[in-house]
Amino acid sequence: MKEILIGILASMFFAVTFILNRSMELSGGSWMWSSSLRFFFMLPPLFLILLLRRRTMPVIKAIAKQPIQWFGWSFVGFVLFYAPLTFAAAYGPGWLIASTWQLTIVAGVLLGPLFYETIQTKNGLAEVRQQVSIKALFFSFLIFIGVVLIQWQEAQELTIQLLLASVLPVVIAAFAYPLGNRKMMEVCNEDLDTLQRVFGMTLASLPSWLTLSGIAFFKEGAPASDQILQSFIVAICSGVIATTLFFIATNRVRQQKERLAAVEATQSTQVLFVILGEFFLLSSPLPTGISLLGLAIVIVGMILHSFNSKKKPANQPQVSTQELKI
């Protein structure tokens, strides 16, 4: 339950991303600056915190030891996650981006077979590929249906062009984020803590952000002061606080796929925070009618996920040697 509460708190800070990214795009800011500035601003505070704790060098050594894994999975988890989100914000409203982003709940469950879990067999402990939890998948789809209903009325006005430009990039991001996060947990194992992992991934993704910002400078010129300020807010709220909280929650339940799915499902609450944020900051209307039904379904889905994650696992089935990780 504690991990779920941490996940919901992280979602509140994550919501800042969708609201301010849309605000920056409405003000004429480049999506390339919005994405790269966030990570430029993330790096100094993370570095300072680790420097004061004397935990910087282990990160540098870890990256030097496995550079391909660090640069590759950081690109997937950070670049393929955030660049498509900011690109989509240039074409679609915040509610659409936040709603589509909830596909990451389903993606997290479907990605299970790419990873291993430790189970008890008659020959002792063994690592086997995770199986897709049908219950977790059902609860995740239930939440996603609720999110779709929340935005049903507005969604009827969407065009094919808008869907391709604003929805497809978010679908890519929705799969990239949990994949990069989980793979980096495997790479780091227990050698680095969550803050070190976030700093390392930010550092490893820096070449991509420098390239993107260079393109933005030659195409759009320097970013405006308002975009710099809002990007700084996004970096602190979403990049540092939310990412660290979410990584802490997922890391604590990394070996329990039902609980991991429940923590990843807490991201559905971002939609609620985005709706409220856009109402107060961008004067967007509050949901009514069928959208309220969607809110209720989201809440029910989260409760079911929570109860399912708290159940003690049944006796682990015996596995054959062919299933064991080599």
What does this structure look like?
The protein is mainly alpha-helical and 326 residues long. The protein contains 16 helices and 2 strands. It has helices at 2-26, 31-52, 57-65, 67-89, 94-101, 103-110, 134-150, 152-155, 160-166, 168-188, 194-204, 206-220, 225-252, 257-265, 270-281, 290-310; strands at 116-121, 124-129. Strands 1-2 form a two-stranded antiparallel sheet. A hairpin with a 2-residue loop joins strand 1 (116-121) and strand 2 (124-129). Helix 4 (67-89) packs antiparallel against helix 10 (168-188), helix 6 (103-110) runs antiparallel to helix 14 (257-265) and helix 14 (257-265) runs antiparallel to helix 16. It is globular, with a radius of gyration of 20 Å. The chain starts with a helix and ends in a 16-residue tail after the last helix.
Per DSSP E runs of 2 or more residues, the count of β-strands stands at 2
The succession of helices and strands, N to C, reads HHHHHHEEHHHHHHHHHH
The average pLDDT is 80
Secondary structural class: mainly alpha
Strand content: under 5%
Q: Based on CA inertia axes, which overall geometry fits?
A: globular
Distance between the termini: 34 Å
| Main sheet makeup | 2 strands, antiparallel
Strand order of the largest sheet: 1-2
Flag low-confidence runs. 313-326
Number of helices: 16
